[in-house]
């Protein structure tokens, strides 16, 4: 399968880039694992559920309608249900800045089919990575109980399945995501017993000028919280979840200015659901495999959204968590830049001046948010030795601490080798922040050859990617297993 531009990810950034590039004559193939466009932000309920007012689950609905209708009317080829596991550079080509006539610069390898065992390769002259982000998970005693979900998970259940995780919920953690989750659950009939934000209220006040752009939106959420009588507890955190077979209550406590739990402030709140979130992390697996520079946890890009690998652009959460509006601006800039470069002309930044201005403003806003809405500085002190840290391998905090203090481990890789934390199905994506916190080291990207598990039979056939465009029934005679 051949295209000029392969866009990986059909969220806000990927949609904006695809439409901008296609409008300028570029042959675009949009590749996404979901069955519908929109990503996590614009997640839609399945058609079979018969949702009568899906717009009630979203804000920025009109923006989504424009993107959806624009995609339908465009020349973009949209591949749904395609799980990209690797983007490979073709050494015979030099990317968008100097394309070879003999072959495409990149091979985008994906899996499809019910069991994700059918290989497809899209050959492209340029690639845009719009792979989004995932939630940061921090452990605490009781966090593995049924009924404890991530904040984004609760929102996804509501948006995509029209279901709620329970009848009485506590929404806790830190960051802007907590507001739409709490208001969405309350509007769906869940009794939200508390919205618990660990950020220091004084810190929010100090950064008010930088946060002013979003005050009207925040005021709207506040009004809905008041309407549903949701108690708001700022400067607090969940220290423990209680229950036998499932969640029955949580203990919430106040934090001092240093981020430590104030003794004697614990308060037990009955609930059957805890939606907890501590921010997000960018998906960078594909970028790391390509050799793109990653600074901290973000893929680094220039003013055109180009990475340091010729022919590869990145936009949206993969370059830094910043929400849908920022992703749209970055995607639009990337799409225009790619179109110009593929057509052999120098891009004119004046063409995307409005999007660049929006990008600057939103990056400044989310930098202020990050400075205020960080996890409590001493959250590790609440993690007991018998608290499970790595759920895949059932590694407890005490084992990690022993590897650090008793065996001298000082980085994630050494802890992984000594304890198996991070060796499970998620490959450390879930437990990585917790292990890094317990080990006292930075959360550094781990370069992996694959972004997701791949059947061995597929790997055996990827030596000849041109033959992997479509899989016939005979191709399944090879016995396959998990990697």
Automatic annotation (TrEMBL):
It holds the Pfam family Fer2_BFD. Residues 4-330 form the FAD/NAD(P)-binding domain. CDD domains: GlpA-like_Fer2_BFD-like. Residues 388-437 form the BFD-like [2Fe-2S]-binding domain. It comes from the Bacteria. Residues 460-483 are annotated as: Disordered. Residues 461-483 have a biased composition (Basic and acidic residues). This is NAD(P)/FAD-dependent oxidoreductase. The lineage of its organism: Bacteria, Bacillati, Actinomycetota, Actinomycetes, Kitasatosporales.
